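In the present case, backbone shapes were mapped to integers, as reproduced here:
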Amino acid sequence: MTHKTRITFKPHDEICPEGAVIYAEPGTSLLDAALEAGIEIEHACEKSCACTTCHVVVREGFHSLEDSDELEDDLLDKAWGLEAESRLSCQALVADEELVVEIPRYTINQVSEKR
């Protein structure tokens, strides 16, 4: 039996109003885990680490994630509501430790199909 990591998403008015608890295989990106569970985190660049629309804040378990690289750090500098525990969910890979994730209220999205 494969161990899956528990990920709790805090409530977000539009994306998951009730919040959600999901489970993901270690090594899965936070974004892929969320999308697979029906949590539609925006990802305008199609997971290529070229925008900040999938920005999340990891409230618990942040230090279990591998460090971000220079490209991710440069992009995060442009994210709305940047915090010390901010990550791009397309780049943050789930490890063995439980996570609590908050999806920021806003994104900076220059490539939105919704406009």
